[in-house]
């Protein structure tokens, strides 16, 4: 697992951003940047769904993926970053359009602000500095996921995707919490 993690770190921290930068300079088609947004949403979904699934199903391979969330988060940040900057450039967006709550872009921008906070604090220095507050800070992953899901659903004009995705997420988190709560009760007695 150690070698795999190192390979994933090299990909997430170096190869992916360089590749996306080259791609961004070579392409100015909206579809490329839209696909990066879809990829970002898929990675973010994996990050938020994997822990509840690991707790519920107790499978080692799921726990192995849980241990890779930081690397997946970095990869997610890069796909988001190039999605946003590419579409900002291609569509000649303005801050006024981005921060208007009437447009679906606003919800992507809110998710993006959260993504920036998460990526800036996704390092060993931040975990040492913030201690247990680091974990509290990273709970913003959940609203970031919901904002990104809403943004993507509205962009595709498929709002039902938001309701289904959000419902599945909430149900899985409730089941995860229930299982953890039962385990902690059993340890006490």
3D structure, described in words:
By secondary structure, the chain is mostly helical. The protein has one domain. It has helices at residues 2-26, 30-57, 60-66, 69-90, 95-98, 104-120, 124-130, 132-137, 141-155, 159-188. The mean pLDDT is 93.
Short description:
With 189 residues, the protein is an all-alpha fold.
Q: Characteristics of this structure?
A:
10 helices, 189 residues, mainly alpha
Structural class from helices and strands? mainly alpha
Number of strands: 0
Rg is 18 Å
Q: What is the count of distinct domains?
A: 1
Distance from N terminus to C terminus (CA atoms, Å) equals 35 Å
Portion in strands: under 5%
Quaternary state of this entry equals single chain
Question: What order do the helices and strands follow?
Answer: HHHHHHHHHH
Count of helical regions = 10
Mean pLDDT across all amino acids: 93
Q: Bin the helical content.
A: over 70%
Shape: globular
Please specify the SSE layout and strand pairing.
Layout: H1 2-26, H2 30-57, H3 60-66, H4 69-90, H5 95-98, H6 104-120, H7 124-130, H8 132-137, H9 141-155, H10 159-188
